Structure formats: structure tokens, C-alpha cells
From TrEMBL:
CDD domains: PRTases_typeI
Name assigned to this protein: ComF family protein
Family recorded in the similarity comment: Belongs to the ComF/GntX family.
InterPro entries, alphabetized: ComF/GntX_DNA_util-trans (IPR051910), PRTase-like (IPR029057), PRTase_dom (IPR000836)
Domain of life (superkingdom): Bacteria
Length: 227
């Protein structure tokens, strides 16, 4: 006899395994149903490798993979995860990223990385929060895909103002000389994991450091993309 182990974090209907966390019907509602630019993950007229805006301003990475747009109900779950210490949500949220990667791999031949990195927190910020949300998202992805997870390959060298409190220009200047690549990453195909990509300032700052280490390629994997 089957027993109900958990309830969907969104609709509260039963799910059969605690690691799933979100039921099939809610997963379908979260799916990205509009064509996307594979480089910036923003909606476009059709699926393309590089939209008109990306062609004007080439990026330092080879594509952004996101699970969903930064909208309710997922944005509320992310807020609970990040600011209310609901770390139990990590496998559920990572699974959403994995499902979209598998879809992209089938539909667009999205390449598999060989190493996962997480956007780092400054040690002071890490002590305050108690965990790095990007790290908790990256670890299961690396394990499920049998890839290396390299926790100390990038470090944050100074405390900055929280990015979500700044405008686009402020986000860019806020991250100048903040990150440092500390490992020999030459030749690695990297997936950099973050919780949310907004302007891409964080991804750009870290991708620049990774390029200095002569990585083979960089992908940005995130849970949500702001519109």
C-alpha cells in the first residue's frame, strides 16, 4: 500500500516522495512556455542562440539556463528558501533546474558541463545567513549529472551592498573587483549556478574571472530569470 510522504509546496496536493516537492501539475504551470533566447534566457519571438540585444552586446558566457521566470508562486518559494532558512527546499528547487536542462538537452542539444561552481558569498555574509543558497542548488545538480562540484574555485573578496537593492548601473559598479578565481580551471566546461539572474552583473563579473583562467566554456544555470 502506498503512503503519502509529502505535500506539494505550491498546491499542497500529495506527492509520493519528499525530494520531488512540487507536483506534476504545478511543474507544468511553471514551465517556460514562451520562446527564449538561449544566450540571455529572456523571451524572444522565436528560440534563438542570440537575440538582437545579445548580438549588440555579446556576453562572456555561452548561454543561460533557467527553470522559470521570477514570478509567484516560485518567487515566493525562493524567498522562503533564501531569507527564511527553508533549506529543505533545496533539492526540490534544484530538480526544477535539472528538468529544464534535460528538456534543453533534448530540444537544443544543450551541452553537458563537466564542472559546477556556485556563486560565492563573502565569509561575513555566509556567517550571517548560515548557508549559501547557490551552493545548495549546485551540489545536487553536480551529483545527479555525475559532474565535479568545485566549492572553492571562486571566492568573494569583499562585502557588497545586496544586489536586489540596486538599479542596473549600481549592480554593475557594486561588483567591481569582488570575485577572484582561485583554482586551475583551464580547459573545464563550467556551469555557474545562481539562484536568480536579473541584470547578469554577477554572472558577468565571475565569467570575466573564469575567462582569465582559460576555461573552455561557461554556462549560467539559475532557478529564476527576471523579466
Amino acid at each position: 500500500m502506498l503512503t503519502i510522504k509529502s505535500a506539494c509546496w505550491i498546491c499542497l496536493l500529495p506527492v509520493w516522495h519528499t525530494s520531488v516537492g512540487i507536483c506534476y501539475w504545478c511543474e507544468q504551470k511553471l514551465r517556460l512556455d514562451k520562446p527564449r533566447c538561449l544566450n540571455c534566457a529572456l523571451p524572444s519571438e522565436s528560440v534563438c542562440d542570440s537575440c538582437s540585444q545579445c548580438q549588440k552586446t555579446p556576453s562572456l558566457w555561452h548561454g543561460i539556463l533557467t527553470a522559470a521566470d521570477y514570478l509567484p508562486p516560485l518567487s515566493k518559494l525562493l524567498h522562503q528558501f533564501k531569507f527564511s532558512s527553508q533549506t529543505i527546499l533545496a533539492p526540490t528547487l534544484s530538480r526544477l533546474i535539472l528538468l529544464n536542462y534535460l528538456r534543453y538537452r533534448r530540444a537544443y542539444q544543450w551541452p553537458k558541463p563537466d564542472c559546477f561552481l556556485a556563486v560565492p558569498l563573502h565569509p561575513k555574509r555566509l556567517r550571517q545567513r548560515g548557508f549559501n543558497q547557490s551552493e545548495l542548488l549546485a551540489q545536487p545538480l553536480a551529483r545527479w549529472l555525475s559532474c565535479r562540484y568545485w566549492p572553492d574555485a571562486i571566492r568573494c573578496t569583499k562585502v557588497t551592498v545586496n544586489q536586489h537593492t540596486l538599479d542596473k548601473a549600481g549592480r554593475q559598479s557594486n561588483l567591481e573587483q569582488v570575485y577572484e578565481a582561485t583554482a586551475d580551471l583551464r580547459g573545464y566546461h563550467i556551469a555557474l549556478v545562481d539562484d536568480v539572474v536579473t541584470t547578469g552583473a554577477t554572472a558577468k563579473a565571475i565569467a570575466y574571472q573564469l575567462q582569465q583562467r582559460q576555461v573552455a566554456s561557461i554556462q549560467i544555470w539559475c532557478l529564476c530569470r527576471t523579466l
